[in-house]
Specification:
alpha+beta; six-stranded mixed beta sheet; 10 helices
């Protein structure tokens, strides 16, 4: 990617709303071979390149394939995108409606934040057949995101390019529970637990308020003395002016 903030919506749409061939193209072009993937229900570690085991990127592709098998029709909307260029972190807030085809009336409207760790090093793309052997056999012309194309992109100009090193999908508890407890049952259970925990916090704070008071008396005095010493060591403007004039006259108090 040349401009992650503007390009990432299209990348996400290709991964979630497109057929498998386009999914694989997108993964090959924008993910590093050792990319990791973290989700509340599944995870892929970052695996080093090895001709005898699948790459991380290949395993991620199968997660997206299963995602499409479970819910062939997905509604998805990108709500916001923020790019922390200094730390190469891309934050994307997404709203999607996930509907499993073999469960009647099942719909899971969820909102999540995806955190993408980017890198400016594409890594070793490896042979196409090492990553997606079955797709390569069926239609090699579909592999638009091949390693050779990727290297051509790198050499085409001197602009900084970015690849996805890791994907971390963050869901609130009330959101991801919709996948396993549909029809509002999970949300109701989580909300009830959250309110119950809030009441516990209130009761605990009222009953054990003296714990913080004791902590402040034991440890707070030293901190207050340190603040007082810092104030004493800070020169006032009058003192600075007095020193600049060669210490003439009476020293300001």
């Amino acid at each position: 990617m040349d401009d992650p903030e503007s390009e990432i919506p299209k990348v996400i749409q290709n991964l979630t709303l497109s057929p498998p061939a386009v999914q694989h193209q997108t993964l090959l072009k924008f993910f590093t071979p050792d990319a990791s993937f973290t989700h509340p229900f599944c995870a892929v570690p970052s695996l080093p390149s090895n001709p005898y085991i699948p790459t991380s990127r290949y395993l991620i592709s199968k997660i997206y394939t299963w995602y499409k098998i479970l819910s062939p029709q997905i509604s998805l909307q990108i709500l916001s995108v923020a790019f922390d260029k200094q730390n190469l972190l891309l934050y994307v807030t997404i709203h999607q409606v996930f509907a499993i085809w073999f469960i009647p009336f099942y719909r899971a409207p969820v909102t999540l934040t995806t955190v993408l760790q980017l890198t400016t090093t594409p890594g070793n793309g490896g042979a196409i057949t090492d990553n997606f052997p079955e797709l390569n056999i069926r239609d090699p012309n579909l592999m638009l995101g091949s390693y050779l194309d990727l290297q051509a992109d790198v050499k085409r100009d001197n602009t900084t390019k970015y690849w996805i090193k890791s994907q971390n999908d963050l869901y609130q508890t009330s959101e991801f529970v919709k996948f396993v407890m549909p029809f509002g049952i999970g949300v109701l259970a989580v909300t009830a637990f959250q309110y119950f925990a809030t009441v516990q916090c209130l009761v605990g704070a009222l009953l054990l308020w003296w714990v913080t008071g004791m902590h402040e008396r034991v440890f707070g005095k030293g901190k207050q003395e340190a603040i007082a010493d810092e104030k004493k060591s800070t020169l006032t403007k009058a003192e600075v002016d007095w020193m600049a004039e060669g210490r003439k006259g009476k020293q300001p108090s």
